[in-house]
Amino acid sequence: MNLFIVEDSILIQNRLVRFIEEIPGMHVVGVSADIRSAYEGVMRHNTDAMILDLQLGEESGLTLLREIKKTRPEIKVVVLTNHSTEDYRTQALRAGADGFLDKSRDFAEIPAYLMRWQGPDFNSQIN
């Protein structure tokens, strides 16, 4: 599975890349801190899934989420944010998010989302 990370914190970017690289069958194909380069990168690479922060400097990840789902609805998107209020969750899910996680509480659940998206053959690869 080809994964693109959209996160403006270098620290979180690096943590996610290290975390994802340990999951069999996962490949980080790009990392971006802003909407424009993220959209271009997702379109340029054969992206299957995306981890998306909601707050990207002065920009909203919801804008990117809507655009991605409009042009490539098959891409799975999990929102990973510090802004985990019910209002943001509702907005993200309405915009097309396939998952919504709190950075401080749910970080460890990322592999479960990604493994579920890889399909039934994935479990046979790790057992």
TrEMBL record:
Name listed for the protein in its UniProt record: Response regulatory domain-containing protein
Give the species. Answer: Undibacterium squillarum
Q: What are the UniProt keywords, alphabetically?
A: DNA-binding, Phosphoprotein
Q: Name one Pfam family in it.
A: Response_reg
Enumerate the InterPro entries for this protein. CheY-like_superfamily (IPR011006), NreC/VraR/RcsB-like_REC (IPR058245), Sig_transdc_resp-reg_receiver (IPR001789), WalR-like (IPR039420)
Keyword Phosphoprotein included in the entry's annotation: yes
Q: Which residues carry this modification: 4-aspartylphosphate?
A: 53
Q: Which residues form the Response regulatory domain?
A: 2-118
